[in-house]
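Q: What would this complex look like in 3D?
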Amino acid sequence: MKLLAMDTSNQAVSVALLDDQQILGEMTVNIRQTHSQTLLPMVDQLLKQTQTAIETIDRFVVAEGPGSYTGLRIAVTTAKSFAWTLNKPLVGISSLALLAANIVDTTALIVPLFDARRANVFTGVYQWQSGSLQTVVADQHVSIETLLARLQLLAEPVYFVGNDVAHFKEELQAALGSNAHFVGANHNLPHASVLGKLGLLAEPVADIHRFGPVYLRKTEAEVNWAKTHDERGTESYVEQV
Amino acid sequence: MSKKRELILAFESSCDETSVAVIEDGHRILSNIIATQIKSHQRFGGVVPEVASRHHVEQITFCTQAALEEAGVTYTDLTAVAVTYGPGLVGALLIGVTAAKAIAYAHHLPLIPINHMAGHIYAARFVKPLEYPLLALLVSGGHTELVLMAAAGEFEIIGDTRDDAAGEAYDKIGRVLGVPYPAGKEIDRLAHLGQDTFDFPRAMLKEENLDFSFSGLKSAFINTVHHADQIGETLNRENLAASFQASVVEVLTEKTMRAARQLDVHQLVVAGGVAANQGLREELAEAIKASGLDLDLIVPPLRLCGDNGAMIGAAAHIELKKETFANLTLNAVPGLDFPYRA
Ligand SMILES: [Zn+2]
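A: Here is my prediction, written as structure tokens for the whole assembly.
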């Protein structure tokens, strides 16, 4: 089965083509960039270099979030459009899981995190159990303080993963001491080949039309509105006219 | 063998409508699916960009499928894919641009980038063939411009707003009157029930240029209402709406007629969301009649005045002939504008 995997959830853009477990090609660019200008040319180059026609892709895999809202929407919209228009299955994988899966050969807890600003992070807790990556604590938007308090309670070794870990390194070390482990640059970067491997095993989405990013946060406008309004009973905010 | 039909699949997502259309030869609408988010943004009293972007992702393939099905065509029938790439909300534009790029790429179709405002003007093509040079009055929530088209696909701004767009002024005074967003239609209705009794200023009417300004009118309106509130007086809403609309319409009509007299044009296209305004349509028609000019007023039907994919497909027909194609790096350009006349 040929899989095309793509991730634009943070600064890096990564695309990979796999034939089952075999990586046929992978490309990752980690500069400040406009994902809408970078992603499709990278996909095109990857397909050309691997002499692959897009029609022969059997499954599209995308990092579905959390992450930067605008960034997420580029890969999600691209993958969703490809899968729908070519009538192929689509798989969405947590952007945090794909970073966690960079860390192999350990059964310790793995904590990928993205800086969500104002001392908050997007994070989850993962662990390899009998060769498969399991979610121990679901992805969430949480204050760094709360995350640290929970990890202190666990009192276990933890591997922190992701480029944003550097923003919190001192706090993590101060809170967890020798239980806090950090990884090298290559492991902090998202790799679409890892995403592809996770996507090979995952269940495709049931309804491609309804698929969208997993933001893990409502917009500020919606949060404020919900304080004074009851949303129950509202059928739909969007209607065909 | 019969000539292959020219079929364009056109995307529009610049603000709060997700729309996909299939257009034949630039002037036949085979489908024009519009999913509007008005109900969503009414919660907030205006369009919230992040909310708009999220809705577009949920709608984009739905609308595309509906457009293809309603038109009864498949990808092999298509000649090209077209998409609005600006102006508009960047996050919203990006969804249409990204989906259009992916679909064009997947089916090896050329991709045509379209200026949203050109689309609004080309909505008139569904009424009748356009003749150049042509004058267009573009009025929407974001724009108030007089545009001269010397030829098909050529646009030059000859008059512009110095501050607020006309549609923006409607929404702002709508808030003061307690009219829910978007306010234009309701104020237009109220205006028809009232009289111009407040005599609000007609900004820049005496100046020679073709530019507009609506912030002074907006301030005068708000001050009048606030002053009345302070002294416990209740003003007649119909008369307030009528007075506001009379000022907007008079300035738009005067400047447009001034431009028409200066230029050798025989068609006047009124385009954009505010083109739906009955007061504006009536006054322009009367002014043309009174002027004795040989000027044909073209206003697209209501459904084509708002944002829609059909108008993008109509504009794309011209760009296809000119072979204006985008490559895979196409990005959204939120501040895209026509050039100003030198
Ligand atoms: Zn518009």
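A: To summarize the key features: The interface with chain B takes residues 34, 36-38, 40-41, 43-44, 54-55, 69-70, 73-74, 76-78, 80-82, 84-86, 208-210, 212-213, 215, 219-222, 225, 229, 236-241 of chain A (CB under 8 Å). Chain A has two domains: 2-95+190-221, 103-188.
Q: Very helpful, thank you.
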